[in-house]
Amino acid sequence: MASSRLAVPSLSECQCQICLEILFEPVTLPCNHTLCKSCFQSTIEKATLCCPFCRLWVSSWARYHTRRNTLVNLELWDIIQKHYPKECERRASGKESEDLDLADNPVRGRKDNRKVRLIKVQYICK
């Protein structure tokens, strides 16, 4: 267990599968799927109260953690900020990922792919 905490997650492991950006204030759902807080809130507002990946119903969980201001997985968020400070700063400033070297992941940064992904997520949850 202690060794897993010492492992540095790769940049791809710290990527939100909805917006395809670095996880910013990550929310880890009861099903262990993780997404950005803004993507979570957008999904909840525009779709049903389910996980956008596996469709697990999370309404009670979301209400509970929203009221207590404990949505963000602080342990993961600290790790991401520690190991990827430039990416976090860029995301906080609102700069697009297209400014980064996309050799690792050619899909990252393409707005058209984000729209397709969001449409798929909204369709699945309805």
UniProtKB/TrEMBL annotation:
InterPro entries: RNF168/RNF169_E3_ubiq-ligase (IPR051657), Znf_C3HC4_RING-type (IPR018957), Znf_RING (IPR001841), Znf_RING/FYVE/PHD (IPR013083). It is found in: Nucleus. This is RING-type E3 ubiquitin transferase. Its EC number is 2.3.2.27. GO terms for biological process: chromatin organization; double-strand break repair; response to radiation. The keyword Nucleotide-binding does not apply. GO terms for cellular component: catalytic complex; nucleus; site of double-strand break. Residues 89-108 are annotated as: Disordered. One of its GO terms (molecular function) is nucleosome binding. Residues 16-55 form the RING-type domain. It holds the Pfam family zf-C3HC4. It catalyses: S-ubiquitinyl-[E2 ubiquitin-conjugating enzyme]-L-cysteine + [acceptor protein]-L-lysine = [E2 ubiquitin-conjugating enzyme]-L-cysteine + N(6)-ubiquitinyl-[acceptor protein]-L-lysine. Keywords: Chromatin regulator, DNA damage, DNA repair, Metal-binding, Nucleus, Transferase, Ubl conjugation pathway, Zinc, Zinc-finger. SMART domains: RING.
